[in-house]
Amino acid sequence: MGSMAFLHSTSSTQGCFIKYKDEVKNSTVRKLCVRASVATSVPQNLQVEENKGNKLEKFRIGVLGASGYTGSEIIRLLANHPNYQITLMTADRKAGQSIGSVFPHLVKQDLPDMVAVKDADFSNVDAVFCCLPHGTTQEIIKSLPNSLKIVDLSADFRLRDANEYEEWYGQPHRALELQKEAVYGLTEISRPEIESARLVANPGCYPTSIQLPLVPLIKANLIQVENIIIDAKSGVSGAGRGAKEANLYTEIAEGMHSYGVTRHRHVPEIEQGLSEAAKSKVTVSFTPHLMPMSRGMQSTIYVEMASGASIEDLRQHLQHVYENEEFVVLLEDGQVPHTRHVRGSNYCLMNVFADRIPGRAIIISVIDNLVKGASGQALQNLNLMMGIAEDTGLLSPPLFP
């Protein structure tokens, strides 16, 4: 979809705020404004720096779990963000170390050393990215100051049904009040709720790649909600940075394999989102596969079209829904999405194809599992929560080849 121009304005009794992105590629004009509804709750002690004669607000950011892949990706994305400054990073097993000693590709970043969570001082923080494992996250977020904006990248607050969480994650939920407060952060679908949220549950990678094409089609009654089959493939980074025998080079290279067959923990999250779109219970057939690549994700989805609907109807509706979105792109008719074309970026490329079986469609959706499937969408969500232009810090094009 190239660079898209759009004008978005919101007004309130306190004034009118305008965001504009110039479609001319060489233009550097960009107005980053704070919505009035959010500005009233912005901390009073923000850092301010001079930027070409203008005062620019710097929100202070904490990254919990900075030594993992999603944490390091947050740090990479924030490196050129004009409105955020990292003031706190935690990593219990790497406490006392610099980020450059853990991730040499970040050696030039001027950042504080990592500390254990128990030693973290949140008095110098306005917002937090929580990149900790599920289960661990609940107790930590429950103990954070209520003044903080939080985007949680774990699975702990994604499922609204506590019993379902216990069934799929093997332990009871220990922060039920926060679970009720959390907003599910599929950005393009839930933007108004995210803007006013204090705690956002960042979606999983597979659910992001699957819901972005399916939710609009289900809401428009263009596809049947029965017999949805999803064949999904992910790079190895989706399994995290922990040392696991199954993720050794000789276990992964020169082959692929299915895993979590019928019991992958993203299943209830996918079905929750699709069921809300359909206003009825949706059950899917979902099988993920591990691919010998470091990052990237493709979901190939097989659906039955609604009576009277055509492939062109599906394409036109997705084009209408996402035509003004920067990060979700419906490709030209017949063009196949490739994971290599979103590597390192916050983009989701998708397309729709006619199946050889009459009445069925094949939908292909690709993302970078660490960016749009995790840290990039998390940054997109925090931008909304803090009243900053949503695409700030996320417009770097994909890395190719």
What does this structure look like?
Strands 3, 4, 5, 6, 7, 8 and 9 form a 7-stranded mixed β-sheet that branches. This protein has helices at residues 36-39, 69-78, 99-102, 136-142, 162-169, 176-181, 191-195, 205-219, 249-252, 267-278, 311-322, 371-385, and strands at residues 6-12, 15-21, 47-51, 54-64, 84-90, 127-130, 149-152, 183-184, 199-201, 228-234, 257-258, 284-290, 297-304, 328-330, 348-354, 360-367. With 401 residues, the chain is of the alpha/beta class. Helix 2 links the parallel strand 4 (54-64) and strand 5. The chain is built from 12 helices and 16 strands.
Which structural class fits the helix and strand makeup? alpha/beta
The major sheet is characterized as: 7 strands, mixed
Task: List low-confidence stretches.
Answer: 1-42
How much of the residues is beta strand, in percent? 15-25%
Number of DSSP helices?
12
Helical content, roughly?
25-40%
Number of strands: 16
- Indicate the radius of gyration in whole angstroms: 21 Å
SSE ordering? EEHEEHEHEHEHHEHEHEHEHEEHEEEH
User: Could you say which overall geometry the principal axes of the C-alpha atoms support?
Assistant: globular
> Termini distance?
19 Å
On the 0 to 100 scale, the average pLDDT is: 88
